[in-house]
Task: structure prediction
Amino acid sequence: MAEEIKSLDELSAVVAGVETPAAEDIRAPREAERDALGRAYATGKRKDAIARVWIKPGSGKVTVNGREINKYFARPVLQMILRQPFQVAGVEDEFDVMATVKGGGLSGQAGAVKHGISKALQLYEPSLRPALKAAGFLTRDSRVVERKKYGKAKARKSFQFSKR
Result:
């Protein structure tokens, strides 16, 4: 590069010729994280609910707090929420799930288990991460109930105003 560069086109040609490593090349590839029993563990959270989730290869059996999915989450919508990560990743009926969940209501608990399943799936098989991330399942939904303030009927609702 001892020769003189006279135009912007020549400069861009020189820069294009220099190879720089892409960001993917610099980062180390993710490795699968499994325990001695071949399971992946993750914690999922939603509202006030916290779910501890273990996944392992199996027939698609889901157990929540020691009960079957259709017994614990009776509403079909909640069962559908739990199946979403497997459908997006394309691994339906390939993993058994064992989850314990505390706090919140059933809807929040279903969201927490879904978050935990998604995180555990990407830890078990890192190649599933792009699909789960694109669907937004790895992001914790940070919306929580706002606290009640003094002098208010609820968090923001005021008592009825009376002029006289």
